[in-house]
Each structure stands twice: as C-alpha cells, then as structure tokens.
Amino acid sequence: MAFEKQRQRLAGVVAIPVTPFTAAGDVDAETYERLVERLVLSGVEVVTPNGNTGEFYALDEQETRQCLEVTTKAAREASVLAGVGHDVRTAARAAKHARASGADMVMIHQPVHPYVSRAGWIDYHRAIANEVPELGVVLYVRNPAIEGSDLAQLAEAAPNVLGVKYAVPDPVRFRTVARDAGYERFVWIAGLAELSAPGYFAVGATGFTSGLVNVAPQISLDLFRHLRNHDFAGAMEIWDRIRPFEQMRAAEGNANNVSVVKDALSQLGLCRPDVRPPSRLLTAAERDQLFEILSSWGLS
C-alpha cells in the first residue's frame, strides 16, 4: 500500500507543536527546534508544524515556511506533517515548499470561507493534493456537512489523500462518515485531542492529535498505548488526570487553547508564554490553577 510508513505513524499520537515567540514577537527558531527535538526524543513519530496549536492563522507566509524548515531539521526520523491552507494557490505553494524542505505529508486546514459547498470542498482539496502527488495528504474535517461519499469521491480523484483528522464533536457522525467513506481507505485520527480520544477510538479511530503532548509527552503516549490495546479502564485513569488541563483549554469556546499550553511550557522553563491576538495571555488566577495541575502531574 502506498505511504505505508506514513499510515502506520498517523495511527498514533500526532503532535501539534506550539510556535514560540521571542520578546520582540518574532518566531523563536532556536526554542522551536528544542521543543520539536523534545517531542521526537520522547517517542512522537508525527509532528505537525503550522497546526492550530501552532497559531497557524496568526503567522504570515514567511513565518510558516520558517516553522516548517525548523521542524524538518529537528524531526530526525519522525514524519513531518506540514499544515497548509488559505486559498488554493497559497496552500499549493506551501505544500510544494514542504516537499522541497523534506516533509513527507501535508495537512490541509479546514477551508476558511463563509460559503462552503460539498462539491467545492472536494475541488479545493483535490486541487491542493494533486499539486504534490509524492506527499501523503491528511484532511482536517471540522464541517459536519461533509459526507462519507464526499471523502470517497475525493479519494478517487487524489490517491495520495490517506488520512482524516476528524474534528466534528460527534462520535456517531464520525463512525457514519468513516463507514460511508470506506473505513480501510483512510487512517482515521481523532482530531479533538485526548478528552475525545477514548470515545472516537471506541468507534474506529486509530490515532489522535495532541497539544498536551508539548507539555507532558509521556502522558499522551501512555494514553495512546492504553487505547491501542483496548484498555479503556487504564485510558480513563489517565483521562481523569488530564481533564482539568484540557478543560482549561476548552473554556470559553477554546479561547485559551494555545495559551494554556504555552503558559505550561513557560512554567516548565521551556518557552515564553506569549501568544498572538486573537489569543490572550492567562490571568494570574488561571496561571495559579495551571500550576496546581502541573504539580499534580509531578512536573512543576
């Protein structure tokens, strides 16, 4: 099967690294490299520069290129799944840069457009995927209107589409889409991170994305091992430990999704807590709450 190594690795913890900034507000390439190395040395096999936890929509095109290049340098033998998006030309240009830089996969962000037709959704992804047939392509699906038949049609037009990061908060919908698309055709990734992973694994997911992995790689990897082995009791013990952290990220419609991860890394002395608008820094009370969570994990 084509892209077999990539398919195997996507059935695991897919890390979405943060993008650290300097005091002047620029991308901190040196710190970024250290954070990626930390992930890979912990056992992570897929790293996604320019994901949402990496503040993709707050970076300009040159910065996304810089993040991708730093990642391919630091990733060693791990797979690099480069986030691309915006209009078709911009996304295709980013995908070609990812290919030239040594990435072996791209993740196409959900189209940011007020008017998305299902046929247009297929055309958008096909156009980008066909520009880089040598790379595996992962779809980021957040739109509940997308049907399994749409995915099946896209797979016919773009054979290099191999994975689906499914981020619609509905396991029943996920299972329905996966079955209608052809369950074995794609690698199915739970795209809403650790708290959703057990429910999605119960109905067919084989991997999950993670921002928490930046902070505590072994916790995320241990959760995956329990889920892979169908040990849901063991998985839920970990779930209970990480729930307060993930709920902090999810509060106010995920407003602090990135801020919590970066502040945790800051409390561990690994990077600055700075985020770009429309995200915000945590309050003092929120930082204290986060400190207590990290302390309960033995990290602070």
Number of helices, counting only DSSP H or I runs of 4 residues or more: 12
N-to-C SSE string, H for helix and E for strand:
HEHEHEHEHEHEHEHEHHHH
Q: Over the alpha carbons, how many angstroms does the gyration radius reach? A: 18 Å
Shape: globular
Instruction: Tell me the major beta sheet.
Output: 8 strands, parallel, barrel
**Strand order, largest beta sheet:** 1-2-3-4-5-6-7-8
Q: Into which percentage range does the β-strand content fall?
A: 5-15%
Explain how this protein is built:
This protein is of the alpha/beta class and 300 residues long. Helices cover 50% and strands 12% of the residues. It has twelve helices and eight strands. The protein has an eight-stranded parallel beta barrel, surrounded by seven helices. The mean pLDDT is 97.
What does this entry show, briefly?
It contains twelve helices and eight strands.
